[in-house]
Amino acid sequence: MSKQFNDSTITLEPSWKNHIVGYLLSILCIPLLGIGFIGLYWVYIKQHTYSYTFSDTQLTSQGKKYERHIDLVNIKKIRVDQTFIQRKMGVGDIILQTSASSVTLQGLEGPEKIKQLLEKAIFAEQQRHKEKEESKPKEPEHNPGSMEKMNYLTGLWQQGLVSDEDYKEEKKHFE
């Protein structure tokens, strides 16, 4: 697992432990006309194909041919998936589900710890979005200028310039 820290980002790569079976089979195949060397190279390339970058607002999954960004606030569910060998080696896959799709972070070391950190970051980002929504100015419940017109009508009524019936009739237009 490779970690790089830049301000508030963390970059992770799959652990070599996730590919232990491939490495062992390749080493066993070295006596067979050197086929094991090709296998070692292939497993090494496969291990370094993916990287995952986390910031406090989003996750970026990078492969050779693609780059995918997911806002943390959109993640609905996180689960850890481990085979028997992965569990013994302390690695696993983390599956992130959004309302539209899912993303699998393959072969990360300490998946339960990463899951907990992600859950905390997602909760914090959801709280930030909630506070941002609450701080937005609300739409007025009345048309602009209607309160002024209502106050003017009330003033006319209080001065006796408008009858009670006319006041009640006009007041209905402002409610």
UniProtKB/TrEMBL annotation:
Pfam families, per the entry: bPH_2
Domain YdbS-like PH: 65-109
Region feature (Disordered): 126-150
Compositional bias of kind Basic and acidic residues: 126-142
UniProt entry tagged with the keyword Mitochondrion: no
Domain of life per record: Bacteria
Transmembrane annotation, as ranges: 20-44
Keywords attached to this entry: Membrane, Transmembrane, Transmembrane helix
Protein name per Swiss-Prot or TrEMBL: PH domain-containing protein
Phylogenetic placement of the source organism: Bacteria, Pseudomonadati, Balneolota, Balneolia, Balneolales
